[in-house]
Predict the structure.
Amino acid sequence: MLQIPPILPAKRPMKPLFMDVTIMPAKSTPRPPQLLLKLRADYPELSFVESGQFAWHAGKKHVSYQKERIEEERGVWAILHELGHALLAHTDYESDIELLQIEVAAWEKAHELAKKYRVRLDQDYVEDCLDSYRDWLHVRATCPTCYGRSLQTDRHTYSCHNCGAIWHVTRSRLCRPYRRKR
Ligand SMILES: [Zn+2]
Ligand SMILES: [Zn+2]
């Protein structure tokens, strides 16, 4: 059965994120936001693709973004973060610690990009995102038997030095920090 999508109210213009002079496009010719135009021009080797989430797809060299969030401040931070992964050529990670390290590196790159595009990037927000990874890591690395802190032995396995317990973890990341609502 066909469903007619509801007509959404027009969004109010947000406060500008960029210090450039922004020329509002005519209503009849919607254009992608300024930042996206600049990113596409500056990084022709990458594709910026509309999707349900912000992500970096190393195989396809796609930086995906949520269209409805790209003009929000956090949407801008998210796309700079994913572009950070892209420019650092992040592909895969072998351990949870390494995932945390590449997250830190991607945010450092996002700070450089924020300077380049003259966007404010809130370090408190970055720390919140990294904390959510640190919390996730802490949960995974805590022994379910004795609550000791343990070491990862391979991608899917942790073992406890204290009591000898071994447990397995999946690669799911539980949450994408920039989706967190506050
Ligand atoms: Zn990331
Ligand atoms: Zn233990």
